[in-house]
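Bug: token stream looks shifted between consecutive jobs. Job 1:
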Amino acid sequence: MVELDDQSVITQLDSSGLRDRLRDLPEQCTLAWSEAKGSRFPVEWRGCTEVVIAGMGGSAIAGDLVADLAGPDCKTPIRVVRDFTIPGLSAGRCPGAGPLVIVCSYSGETEETVSMFHRAQSAQLPMAAIVGGGTLEQKAKDAGIPVMKVNAPGEPRSAVGYNMMLLAALLNQIGVISISDDDVAQAVTAAAEVVASVDVDIPGNVNHAKSLAAELFGGLTLVYGGGAFSGMALRWKSQLNENGKSWAYAEKLPELFHNSVESFPGGPEIRGRTTALMLKPAQAGPELDLRYTVLAEMLDQSGITHHTLVGAGGGLLQQSLPMIVLGDYISYYMGLLNGINPSETPIINASKARMAQ
């Protein structure tokens, strides 16, 4: 097994420098928020009845994370769509009185997202584009659609902070969510503190990300999240898949109590190789808090190893950014433990090439 404290091995496997992109996430968030403050959107968008975030993969996950930031008291529904079409699209009777569609694509070439862009355009709905370039950027500009540029290097999943903060700034400006400069500063500081504690030069015996990655290595990981960490569970799962090259699945509380828990006692050979990670917001609320407690009890009764990772104190953004950092580093170390460059995605690329044929 790869020695995670051996810097030469890390440098050899991580030839693209993904470790640097993980380290820069707090700064990425600051830059994105600062740049987004210069954007202006039609005042009519304040009357939108729904926000639809259309995207795939690493670009879409920002939508889930921002929807979590909106919280349960948000008066405007936020829906993330990963498909070729957007169900239920209908134009409002007056400008801004219908859905607002935000297409997100780091490459600007994602087939599904381009298709959703065309569907929303055909419905003559108000739209914005959050892109890194490509076909979508040009199409949006040609149509006079506001464009926010993701100016972050690397893979789409490594630009999640930038994408997330651009999206949050847009929704903040039109009154769908409320985030202040102080909120961002505190969240970035909290995220930077986590980076400092789990970065590659921090030894494994005091590095929570390294030790947890070593425990998860070679097994199945179940990521559970509820409330403000519903989208976070999906982020961790996808990072464990892409960076970690490992089997992982995500489920939401309270839904899993209506299906998944029934499987816990079965398959001793599977249970012995499974670890459950429960991502819990700091202020879960009494109903959700009870379900986290009961879930831990049921995992114990079934002999399934589990860990509860609680968000830092403070607002939702201050909890979200540090948890993103921790999950990213764990997935990175798992990729290294597998002896594979964590940034490369040859199977995803092969599947796309096959479909293009």
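Job 2, same session, no restart:
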Amino acid sequence: MTLSTNLFTHSSWQNLFKQAALLFTFLLATTSQAETSIWTISKDGNTHYIGGTFHLLKETDYPLPKEFNQVYQQVNQLAFETDVTQLDKPKFQQRFLRAMRLPPGKILADKLSPKAYAALIRYAAKNNIDTGRLQQLRPQMVSLIISVEELKNLGLNASGVDSYMANKAIEDSKTLHFLETIDQQIDYIASMSKNNESALILQTLKDLEKLPEDLDKMLHAWRYGDQQTLFEYGIEPMKQDYPDVYQSLLVERNEEWLPKIETLLQQENSVFILVGALHLVGGDGLLEMLKTKGYRINKN
């Protein structure tokens, strides 16, 4: 598995930025008999839907589980984490690159411990990565770059559920809502593991060793709505290895989204809310948060 130097051409950077921006929530995403990751939310006579997504998929993951299209046909408005249709735009990519670059006069080696930097150098040599090309980037971006490349090598080259459904909704002139801005997403990526960048790089390299096995389990769990497996392979490792990231990337964002989601749920017209699958899992997940607010949650 290699990271081609072509990744650092202008056009390749654009695609990589899009994938990295979509990926960061994934770094956060025995089968059950559930059908798929969609739930019905009901209260006061209103019925809405919430679905867990994977932000990057394999070509073989299409068509999506039939329930996604069934719910889509029942609604005229959809809500997403952010406006994924903007990720291809030059304006977004320019802002993303600025946020992902280190301050003038700083290089990657300055931000990592000798142990973390040596581990990254060994990984780079093994995978034909020119670390000179990474020196101006924040460790958070380096972590995403190598993760994206490993995922691509494992076949995740197709758009995820979010992009697919958003583009479909635009074609069908449906209303789109967003739970946070593009700038907020960029800030979340740039601040991941702030002041713990060496731990982030070391853990990323460790996680990549198990990625082929864990990825298949996570994809299968997403497709069949297996919350237990998503918790075991997605939530528990993050809480243990990245407690700060878990808090900022999942818990705090869920808490910030909840009032916006409740506003949408007060409408009579049904809304289909689509967020990364791990945002729905566990005691801090949106499903439990909605239950505490008096909403009935049922598997679709």
